[in-house]
Amino acid sequence: MHNLKPRVVVVGAGIAGLSCAWELQKNGYTVSVLEAGNSPGGRCREIELEGLRVRAGARMLYSFYKGVMGLVDELGLGDEIVRIGHASIACEAAAGPYPLTFGPSRALLLGGAMGPAEWLGLARLLPDLINTRRKGDPDDWLSLPAFDGASLAQYLGQKGLARFNERVVEPLFRGARNWHTDEVSAGFFLLTTAFMNGHYAFTFKQGIGQLATALAARLPVTYGATVARIEHTAEGMRVSGTRVTEHRHEAFVEDAALVVCAVEGDRAKALLAEPDTHASTFLDQVRYNPLTVDYGVLDTPTAHSLTFYGSGRGEDLAILETVPGSDLAGDLPRLFCQASPWRSRSPGDPAGHQAALAAHAQACLPGAKVQRWVRQHIPSMLPVPYPGYLAALRRFRDSQAASPRRVYFAGDYLSMALVGGACASGQRTATLISAHWPDAVPSL
Ligand SMILES: Cc1cc2nc3c(=O)[nH]c(=O)nc-3n(C[C@H](O)[C@H](O)[C@H](O)COP(=O)(O)OP(=O)(O)OC[C@H]3O[C@@H](n4cnc5c(N)ncnc54)[C@H](O)[C@@H]3O)c2cc1C
After folding, report:
1. How many whole angstroms from 12 Cα to the centroid of ligand 1?
2. For ligand 1, atom 37: residue with the closest CA
3. Which atom belonging to ligand 1 lies closest to the Cα atom of 60?
């Protein structure tokens, strides 16, 4: 019997895994983080794809992410913040183009997307928004359980805002989230909309991955380590898989008292040798959506422009953006062509799709030429908060909190489909472990 805090292996160095490991390490636990990729941050970092610097996921963070802002302070990243102003978005819809903005704004109210009927409908939304701002936590879906019953499209329809959904919310959700408003419940919309006012969007000077890089620099992280199995042993837990070292693949085994599984929620169950009933039932209900982006590398610098497509226009496209590029390595001027949710699910042959995009680009940018195309496919973009998901999540979180266990979970699918949610989930899991396995417990 030793009086040591248990050793914890964290699987996955996304924001959830890193923030969990960081809290545990500060509380005196010995942690070890295993990451399949070659850099930290998961879906919140930049990666190199065929010589092009691209985002692996998140575009911007919001100052209403409490856990993230705490880390920014703690890690001394305040001076590294770069605020992102409201981008002006053109929306292409069947009825013609009109301007859009993320979140409420004068331009949105007066810009042609909305008329007197929508202004009246918005007045009916206000009580829910005010209540959300007072009682909701933008990092946690479960702070708004009442909005789990119907889809966002139905919710807006009931408020007399079907046209607002079609002209504003659907194009924004289709582009920024790759969701249709009839497949998700209203909680995400209310939480993000209610907290936008008075807050700002930002990234970092070195890119969105700077937060994860700063955290990982303070933690023992092994890269290129793909975990295949998490199992119970007589002494505790065993994590095994394959590690890439100098271009060779080697099997590895790590023993620990506890494991935090911080991989994408739709991959977690496959790693568990013996998932308990709660985990098994819940993880079967977790769904993520896939995303396909085609980048057309341009031969000349270009001005920034951002167009979102309503579902009546551009069956294949959700976003077309011209990106000027920068001095950072691989940050070349490019077209960013994000496929529609439908097209992302069955992306098909890149050559055919890219030829159509090239013709489209030619019309938008007569002076520029696409030198080459690069395709990015993200199999698990965001967890889908479909109606009924929050009830399943509530049951699972309650079961996790009820008693000490050997395997814990962290990730955006357990809190909110944003970096703030992933961070909050990691921190919540660390708090749970500290409560379940406090100081001076016998080692397993
Ligand atoms: C295209 C896109 C746009 C987005 N836009 C925004 C945005 O603007 N703002 C925002 O806040 N959020 C945005 N998000 C969401 C945000 O990026 C995620 O919610 C958040 O980063 C998830 O963090 P996580 O730690 O839960 O998961 P992840 O970041 O996915 O981390 C999981 C980690 O586990 C690793 N892993 C997986 N399997 C194994 C294994 N077997 N062994 C070892 N390691 C493994 C993965 O490599 C990964 O590093 C966006 C996401 C995408 C994809």
Report:
1. 9
2. 263
3. 8
The residue whose CA has the least distance to atom 6 of ligand 1 is: 58
Ligand 1 center–CA 262 separation, angstroms: 10
> What is the overall mean pLDDT for the chain?
91
pLDDT digits (tens, 9 = 90+) for 302-325: 888 888 988 765 578 899 999 998
Is 226 near ligand 1, meaning CB less than 6 Å away?
Answer: yes
User: Residue with structure tokens 């908060």?
Assistant: 385
Statement: the pTM of the whole predicted model exceeds 0.85: yes
Q: Answer yes or no: is pLDDT of 288 > 50.
A: yes
Q: How far is the centre of ligand 1, averaged over its atoms, from the C-alpha of 308 (Å)?
A: 23
